Amino acid sequence: MITRKKEIIFFDGDGTLWYPKKTKYQEKPHWIYSLEGTLNDHCEYLTMIPTVLTTLKKLKEYKIYTVLLSTHPHPPEEADAIIQHKIAHFKLRRLFDEIHATREFHASKGEFIAKILKKRGIPKNKALMIGDNYRWDYKPARDVGVDALLVESEYMKNDRQGKRIKKTIKKLSDILNHI
């Protein structure tokens, strides 16, 4: 039996699980939502990041609780519909225990993380947040006392607000070394 340091992993969506086919890790992924012609179906312009599917399947084998927290600027019901559409498009539904569209302010993911941990009775030291953006993913998790990892990208290197972040991964499957 495998001893796990983590019982629950929170994931960001854009830039962590999928990214725009055209720019991949070169530009922040949210540009795609303002691109003319993508309003009705963003998924056509997105691709799943390599190692996502195998990593999520492995986490389910390890019985790790998985939660998707994706920030959307839309009203809550519309944001939930958008994230559910992406999950269905990439056929990831069975690999997530919970899926939430978080609100468009930096602390929102931290608030969701704290609420979910409390509801599930999971200690903070058994949780991990995986994302691609310091302000939207890493810092909100750290602010509520949860460990976090950032996926390395060209845009992440330029968007650290002067912080030297040592907890990074090159590809999603690298999280298996942290659980």
What does this structure look like?
Keywords: Hydrolase. InterPro entries: HAD-like_sf (IPR036412), HAD_2 (IPR041492), HAD_sf (IPR023214), S-2-haloacid_dehalogenase (IPR051540). This is HAD family hydrolase. One of its GO terms (molecular function) is hydrolase activity. It comes from Candidatus Uhrbacteria bacterium RIFCSPLOWO2_02_FULL_48_12. The chain is of the alpha/beta class. It has a single domain (8-17, 50-178), classed as Rossmann fold (3-Layer(aba) Sandwich). The chain is 28% helix and 19% strand. It has five helices and eight strands. The chain has a six-stranded parallel β-sheet with strand order 5-4-1-6-7-8, with helices on both faces. The protein has a two-stranded antiparallel sheet with strand order 2-3. Helix 3 (108-120) crosses helix 4 (134-143). The protein is globular, with a radius of gyration of 15 Å. The two termini are 14 Å apart. The model has no long low-confidence stretch (mean pLDDT 85).
